[in-house]
Design a protein that fits this description.
Length: 383
């Protein structure tokens, strides 16, 4: 019989009810509502992370990610973590102490890149613009030619502003000055035209919970040949064990060497989300997101609201809506949530209190959701 020197403390042994979450329509910057097929896939029974059935699934996830990103990169994997983990993996593996990295800062996630790169010993050069603006090729050329960085980092789809950074021609500049092009595609992968190989992107990362319609917790990452070469010739080891691609890549490569236990069911979900992308086709998917966004933009104009970002660089996946003078933006968002079960988000940083952020991503990018939101928003604004 087991004897115990201590008595069990039941102070924190609470009785809770069965989980019953409210039926929210998630039209903020993420997460978006997961596709029902993704949720169903995630409920499948687990196998081991080195089981032959799981290894076959890993191969499929990698191949489907290559399609979604339009790349042939061998090192294309899902990181075990949220989009910020993939961001950190991108930085940790490409930036060595003393490396100069030029980072385009025109929103919150450019700021986060600066923070991460500085923590890994990078000499961070901030290229700044107002939140909602984008960088011209001449501005990028000036910064790269002056600072000669090892890495140029840009946010393709800035979730805090709703701006889409044009990338055509940037890789030519990076090759001219021998630097890597690192791109945040968290709010663009699966919803906005994106061509990793054709645009010469060396490193890209994303998240699962936006236009891919998968819950957060697994994050796509791809390294091209130039980035892999830099990784393999580092003067110092990668200072993050969990995200060290020299080791993680052996699990996702032909060796299948154990590194950490992969999130089995999250990979099930990501596989199904990527199957949905492939079934729909990228051209059709991009067009669907654009059509939904244009319907939203027209509807906003009809009720007297304006968008923060100019049309030519506006994201179809994330729209920043200017809060009218005298309107309590937080109160409006709170009423939408409590009375209509619709989530939208407030602005961050420079846009705090000035905009709402509305996401139409993946499974949620549908006309009926646009109509539902516009109707509810108009009612709330009209009191």
């Amino acid at each position: 019989m087991l004897t115990m020197a201590q008595t069990v403390n039941d102070l924190h042994r609470i009785t809770t009810s069965q989980l019953d979450t409210p039926p929210r329509l998630l039209l903020g910057p993420g997460p978006s509502n997961a596709h029902p097929r993704v949720l169903q896939a995630m409920s499948n029974r687990q196998v081991g992370h080195l089981d032959p059935a799981f290894i076959a699934l890993m191969n499929e996830v990698q191949e489907l990610l290559r399609y979604a990103w339009q790349t042939d990169n061998k090192l294309t994997i899902p990181v075990s973590g949220t989009g910020s983990a993939a961001m950190e993996a991108a930085v940790a593996n490409s930036v060595e102490p003393g490396d100069t990295i030029v980072i385009g800062v025109n929103g919150y996630f450019g700021e986060r890149l600066c923070d991460m790169a500085g923590r890994y010993g990078g000499n961070v050069v901030r290229l700044e613009k107002a939140w909602g603006d984008v960088f011209t090729i001449d501005e990028l050329r000036s910064a790269v030619s002056q600072h000669r960085p090892a890495v140029l980092a840009l946010v393709h789809a800035e979730t805090s502003t709703g701006a889409r950074q044009p990338l055509e021609g940037v890789s030519d500049l990076c090759r001219e000055f021998d630097c890597l092009l690192l791109v945040d595609t968290v709010t663009s992968l699966g919803g906005v035209p994106l061509f990793v190989d054709a645009w010469g992107i060396d490193i890209a990362y994303s998240g699962s919970q936006k236009a891919l319609s998968c819950p957060p917790g697994i994050a796509p990452l791809t390294f091209g040949p130039r980035a892999v070469d830099k990784l393999n010739n580092r003067a110092s080891g990668v200072p993050n064990w969990y995200l060290d691609l020299t080791m993680v890549s052996k699990y996702w490569g032909s060796e299948r060497t154990y590194h950490h236990t992969a999130p089995i069911n999250m990979n099930y979900g990501l596989r199904e989300a990527l199957r949905l992308v492939a079934e729909e086709g990228l051209e059709a998917r991009w067009a669907r997101h654009r059509n939904s966004a244009e319907m939203l933009w027209d509807g906003l104009a009809d009720i007297g609201l304006t968008c923060h970002v100019p049309l030519e660089t506006r994201l179809p996946t994330l729209t920043t809506v200017r809060i009218p003078e005298g309107v309590d933006g937080k109160a409006v968002a709170r009423t939408l949530l409590t009375d209509y079960n619709i989530e939208i988000a407030a602005g961050l940083g420079q846009l705090g209190g000035k905009v709402w952020r509305v996401g139409l991503m993946g499974f949620n990018s549908r006309p009926e959701n646009v109509i539902t939101l516009l109707g509810a928003l108009e009612r709330v604004l009209n009191g």
